[in-house]
Prior knowledge:
Layout: H1 5-13, H2 37-47, H3 53-62, E1 71-74, E2 77-80, H4 102-110, H5 121-141, E3 146-153, E4 156-161, E5 170-173, E6 181-183, E7 185-186, E8 189-190, H6 193-196
Antiparallel strand pairs: 1-2, 3-4, 4-5, 5-6, 7-8
Amino acid sequence: xxxxxxxxxxxxxxxxxxxxxxxxxxxxxxxxxxxxxxxxxxxxxxxxxxxxxxxxxxxxxxxxxxxxxxxxxxxxxxxxxxxxxxxxxxxxxxxxxxxxxxxxxxxxxxxxxxxxxxxxxxxxxxxxxxxxxxxxxxxxxxxxxxxxxxxxxxxxxxxxxxxxxxxxxxxxxxxxxxxxxxxxxxxxxxxxxxxxxxxxxxxxxxx
Length: 207
C-alpha cells in the first residue's frame, strides 16, 4: 500500500496551535497569578496528560509567566501562550529518545530521490515532494510527548517531556544548527524542570 506522505504531513501539522495561543503574551501577562488545583486538573484532563510534579508545583506557586511559556485557558482551550510549535495531537505519545530514530533517519536520507533516476522532471518532483513530506512527519514526531516550554531564539527551544520514560526531563531542540535534540544534564544526570528553572539551557548542554 502506497502512503500519501503529503496528506499525512498535512494532518499531523494540524496538531499545532496557530490561534491566539501562538502569539507572545503582552507585558501585563508577564507575571500571571498562580493556577488553582481545579484549573491544573482541568488542563491535564483536556490535554490528556499529567504534568510532571515539579512543573505542577510551579503552576500552583507562580504560574508560568516570564521566560517560561505560560499555561493558560483561551476560547480555544488550554495551551501554552507564545508557542505555536508544540503538537497537541502528539502530547499523549511517548517522547522518543534520539537513538530510537537515528537508523530510520539515515535510511530516509539514503532514499532521497535523485533526478537522474526519473524519466522526467514531473515524476522526480512528485517523488521528491513525497519524500520531503515523509521527512517532515519524522521531524514532527521527534518532539512527541514534549512541550516547547521556552523559546531560546535563533530557532532554538527548550522542551519539557510530559509523556513516556523520559517524562519530567528537559531537552534542547538544536535542530536549527546541528539537526539534533539534546538532553540537558547537570553533573552527568538528566535535568528536571526544577533543576532547570532559573538556569540557562545553553549552560546545561554537552555539545
